[in-house]
Amino acid sequence: MTLPRPDLLVEAPYAPNPRRVRIFMAEKGIDLPREQVDIMAGEQFLAHAERVGTFHVPALHLDDGSWLTETVAICRYLEALHPEPNLMGRDAREAAEIEMWSRRMEFQLFYPVAQVLRHGNPKMAVMEDQVPQWAEANRTRVQSGLELLEHALSRDGYVAAGRYTIADITAFVAVEFMRTIRQELPEAHDATHVWRGLIRARPSSVP
Predict the structure, then answer these.
(1) Is 107 helix (H, G, I), strand (E, B) or coil?
(2) Cα–Cα separations (whole angstroms), residue 109 to 74, 78, 85, 127, 157
(3) In this predicted model, what pLDDT tens digit does every residue of 71-87 receive, in sequence order?
(4) CA-wise closest residue to 181 among 5, 35, 16
């Protein structure tokens, strides 16, 4: 069976989830037309949601007229169409490890950073019924997530499977996104500093 081909990526230029997909695509050499949605202006709740079926970005349009949303779902589909370079696991064991660490980075670092921003920055009030106490609670969770990342990287220099994968993409975007909450990497996290330098040097990581 021939799978539908992607023909459009709808994204928001400064949002972290679209950046995860852009990096994933760049690693695989995938180039698609792109359409921008201004999420700070609420465009995702209007024509975008009516067309796609959800307000989430990114969204991938396929040439059979259907849409895919959710970052990892989009990446998984692109991996099926473009297996190399492999970013999600070459066998069941490796795929499970990569998925495990990608989810850990998503829930224990990426999500807390986002919550500090969304509930702690007054400019984000257009998108969120803000609870400042939740922002402060998540600052502690960001620190814990950074400790977990340092522990993972101290093993062999990558987040999972001993090589660059989607788990590194998730963690890297989370760390880069910390600039929005004015959070710095702890100086003592040597493995994370080395890793961030290596990932930043990859052409795919250019914002």
Answers:
(1) helix
(2) 21, 25, 26, 21, 18
(3) 999 999 999 999 999 99
(4) 16
